[in-house]
Write a structure and sequence with these properties.
mainly alpha, binds protoporphyrin IX containing FE, Peroxidase, domain 2, Peroxidase, domain 1, 47% helix, binds 2-acetamido-2-deoxy-beta-D-glucopyranose
Length: 330
């Protein structure tokens, strides 16, 4: 009797430790600030609302900041740190491109004036990204919180971790699997390109002499190609902006995926999800599913955002709560 009771205890302990181990990946909770900053969510919502009222594109910019933060060294607000040209802001994907830093400063100072010194910049980015999607007409989800801010910001790391619009599908997939995401996440999160803008320099490789073929990318639909060839001429201004989703630029919907089916993806990395020989059945069929089923896209996008927000957070006594999102505390 004694023995079997001990066995039972031992077994329970084993199960509990296993559960704790599995739980380590997700120590974040939705109610992390319910005592220390009960008004947090409404403060951030209001600030994002204000920013979007001034400039609708800011929703896209804030969403992208959270993505770029999480892929490099985990969601630790590393992308927000100012510094010399070795910091993340100077990586290829960020320089002259990542934006919204002033809005994050404004959110942080509004949060600080209600609850000083308790809310991390990494959590502010996660909430602002969720609100940006929702306020653009997209899905919502309960944001997991409790991240702390890191001290490291490296352009080299960011260059290695962030996917590039010129990469092949297998290389892009690897960058997601490297951070614990899978092919469903690749496709659903790419749907973030249903809002926001991109510069000619990020897709003009497709317009005239694609991969040294002497011809444009044959997977681009003809009228869109003609339009972009005149918008982004050879030797033109590579910093001119155009919409990632030309159908409904400011609306978070599934038109991004309808575009891919029609050959109207803007970036090479968008269109290959549907058109690459490597797309095989998986990414192509997900694109097709999302193009037909808005609800499925919204559900998968929300789940993937939660997964992305869970990439290697600093928790407990690791990291710090930055006073100023642009600098580590002294
Ligand atoms: C294969 C992966 C990805 C690549 C190669 C990629 C690449 C790019 C590029 C080149 C731009 C235009 C930047 C510029 O011209 O300044 C852009 C914009 C954007 N990206 Fe991505 N991206 C990827 C995944 C994602 C993900 C996962 C999200 C969010 C869930 C996202 C959200 C956005 C948004 C919202 C914009 C517009 C930003 C604005 O207008 O300020 N992207 N992306
Ligand atoms: C960064 O700045 C240093 C010092 O100003 C300079 O020597 C170096 O070339 C710069 N590196 C890059 C990648 O721009
Ligand atoms: C990716 O992971 C999610 C769970 O996070 C799962 O539901 C989905 O089926 C996975 N996708 C693939 C292609 O394995
Ligand atoms: C296209 O690019 C390739 C490789 O860069 C180059 O050799 C070729 O001359 C270019 N073709 C045209 C028509 O510009
Ligand atoms: C967007 O797509 C819908 C069909 O899905 C079409 O009726 C509408 O004209 C398109 N709008 C633009 C601006 O292309």
């Amino acid at each position: 009797m004694m023995k079997s009771s001990n066995n039972f205890k031992g077994y329970s302990l084993l199960v509990i430790s296993l559960l704790l181990c599995l739980g380590v990946r997700s120590q974040l909770t939705t109610d992390f600030y319910s005592k220390t900053c009960p008004t947090l969510l409404s403060i951030v919502r209001k600030q994002v609302q204000n920013a979007i009222k001034t400039e609708m594109r800011m929703a896209a910019s804030l969403l992208r900041l959270h993505f770029h933060d999480c892929f490099v060294n985990g969601c630790d607000a590393s992308v927000l740190l100012d510094g010399d040209n070795t910091t993340e802001k100077f990586a290829f994907g960020n320089i002259n491109s990542a934006r919204g830093f002033e809005v994050v400063d404004a959110i942080k100072s509004a949060v600080e004036s209600s609850c000083s010194g308790v809310v991390s910049c990494a959590d502010i980015l996660a909430i602002a990204a969720r609100d940006s999607v929702l306020l653009s007409g997209g899905p919502t989800w309960r944001v997991l919180l409790g991240r702390r801010d890191g001290a490291v910001s490296s352009a080299t790391q960011a260059n290695a971790a962030l996917p590039s619009p010129f990469e092949a599908l297998d290389a892009i997939i690897k960058k997601y699997t490297d951070v614990g995401l899978n092919i469903t996440d690749v496709v659903s999160l790419s749907g973030g390109h249903t809002i926001g803008l991109a510069k000619c320099g990020t897709f003009d490789n497709r317009l005239f002499n694609f991969s040294g073929t002497g011809a444009p990318d044959s997977t681009m639909e003809a009228s869109m190609l003609a339009d972009l060839q005149s918008f982004c001429p050879v030797n033109g201004d590579s910093n001119r902006f155009t919409a990632l989703d030309r159908n409904s630029t400011d609306l978070f919907d599934n038109h991004y995926f309808k575009n891919l089916v029609d050959g109207k993806g803007l970036l090479g990395s968008d269109q290959i999800l549907y058109s690459s020989d490597l797309a095989g059945s998986t990414t192509k069929s997900l694109v097709e599913s999302y193009s037909k089923d808005l609800k499925l896209f919204f559900t998968d996008f929300a789940n993937s955002m939660i997964k992305m927000g869970n990439i290697s957070p600093l928790t407990g006594s690791n990291g710090e709560i930055r006073k100023n999102c642009r600098a580590v505390n002294s």
